[in-house]
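Data availability (excerpt). The following record was deposited with the supplementary files.
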Amino acid sequence: MDIAAQSIEGGFADPVFNAQTVFRAVMDAMARPGSVQPLPALARPPAPLSATAGAVALALCDNDTPLWLDPALHASAAIGSWLGFHTGAPLANTPADAHFAFVATPAEMMALDGFAQGTQDYPDRSTTLILQVSDLVSGTPLLLEGPGIETSATIAPAQMPRHFIEQWKQNIQRFPRGVDIILATAEGIACLPRTTRIKTMEA
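Predicted structure:
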């Protein structure tokens, strides 16, 4: 299939309803950090952008939200075309200019502090990172505490960035500035908002 066809096909079958479904899942996942919100495969983006990450892009991104793609995604001209056609979102020049960042290989990604952190007055002008992970059970178990979590929650996403716990501690210290993370698996999403405290489970 040529890039032109690839960039047009695979969008939402029912744009309004599908976008609402994804948006609600993201809001629920942000409100209850660590909870897994199931999402059906509503989008069919070009590989290696996953169906779940693609659906999040279609629901949240528009021509006012510059996107940054990690090298694995940026290498595919079809992905840039697909996102441009379906969302109108421009590609950000640098990670610090991005409203949303899509990462296919989180284990190799750059440091969190290289993305937009927002300002004290406008903390919402930070980057939301969408990390594609194979699952939420086979990685290092993370203990989550904070707003939206009754006592604690546990999640174990695979292929997370190196030194993630240390990076996240620094992210918490920048509050109200800082990044938020959406973890995208084949089954659905889970979120790590900047208010969530994370530590590793002590063996």
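Summary of structural features: Strands lie at 37-38, 67-69, 100-103, 128-132, 142-145, 153-155, 180-184, 188-192, 197-200.
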